[in-house]
Write a structure and sequence with these properties.
Distance between the termini: 33 Å
Radius of gyration: 23 Å
Order of helices and strands: HHHHHHHHHHHHH
Mean pLDDT: 59
Largest sheet: none
Number of domains: 2
Helix content: 55-70%
Strand content: under 5%
Number of helices: 13
Structural class: mainly alpha
DNA sequence: AATTAAAGCAACCGCCATGAA
DNA sequence: TTTCATGGCGGTTGCTTTAAT
């Protein structure tokens, strides 16, 4: 039946992405749109699994991503959504433009969970912990609802962390959060922008922006065939995506150069519209 | 200043649903 | 109908950075 594996494990690189790899991935997606992850590594000249490329793009390189810690309102929204949806991070992320499931998941595990515990709220059930203990003790002798959290649960309001607790209280955390929130880490795109040569290369100033898309294969749009219609659908997505970049405030992320990209894109989009 | 511990986060792993063959 | 590649998702790992001693 014949499908090729998504990537042959031999020669596939793992681990942290280099700037060079990022550059290739960005360049390729900017010219072709984020479509078929299976074919992407080969076409983009990357020795990576398609899955790895997708993750890198969706979690880190996507231009509409917000960087930095979640704001108070975002955090509250995450808590609310988590109470309703549980650990469905992708669903939660879909309600927060510019945030990824991975990012929210990490933030939940590193910040929100602790915050809730300190407030005496069980991050799993979103119920007050004291009540939780009473009910769970009544219902089952071996409390297993939260492995490893027993000591914390027994002293929900106490700073039990031996190393940092005396300094680490909610207000301090908030201060820390807000501080780092204002001092957002430099966006990767921004670093590309700072490097004029790199930026120029990325934008492909001296070559057509639109690559030959005939090799492009989009599993969703074309049901994994090679016909051109699929490519066109991808371009529609691409256009939408670029518009979204604007809507989400690309400039806020130091992505001014995408405006340049967009300036170049109408040609491609026009072609697309004419064909479609 | 050096060492250790903790926190943060990017990336990987493995499972699942879907749909093509 | 069955098989299996693919993309998506949630859980986990491990590296890097920061804070504490």
């Amino acid at each position: 039946m014949g499908r090729q594996p998504c990537c042959d494990k031999l020669g596939v690189k793992k681990g942290p992405w280099t700037a060079e790899e990022d550059k290739k991935l960005i360049k390729f997606i900017l010219t072709n749109g984020p479509c078929c992850w299976r074919a992407l590594p080969k076409l983009a000249g990357l020795r990576r699994c398609g899955k790895s490329c997708r993750l890198r793009w969706t979690n880190y390189l996507r231009p509409d991503l917000k960087r930095g810690l979640l704001t108070e309102s975002e955090e509250q929204l995450v808590i609310d959504l988590h109470a309703r949806l549980g650990n469905r991070w992708s669903k939660i992320a879909s309600k927060l433009p510019g945030r990824t499931d991975n990012e929210i998941k990490n933030h939940w595990n590193t910040h929100i969970k602790k915050k809730l515990l300190k407030m005496g709220i069980d991050p799993v059930t979103h119920e007050p912990i004291l009540k939780e203990i009473q009910t769970s003790e009544a219902s089952s002798p071996h409390n297993e609802h939260s492995p490893g959290s027993e000591t914390k649960l027994s002293q929900p309001f106490e700073s039990t962390n031996k190393s940092g607790s005396s300094k680490e209280n909610p207000s301090v955390s908030q201060t820390k959060n807000s501080l780092s929130g204002n001092d957002e880490p430099k966006n990767l795109f921004q670093s590309f922008c700072d490097d004029e040569k790199l930026l120029s290369y990325l934008l492909g100033d001296d070559e057509p922006l639109l690559l030959d898309a005939s090799n492009w294969e989009s599993p969703h749009d074309n049901k994994r065939s090679n016909n051109c219609a699929s490519v066109l659908a991808s371009w529609d997505d691409c256009a939408t995506w670029l518009m979204d970049c604007q809507d989400f405030g690309v400039n806020d992320f130091g992505l001014d150069f995408l405006n340049k990209v967009e300036m170049s894109f109408p040609n491609s989009l026009e072609m697309n519209n004419k064909r479609g």
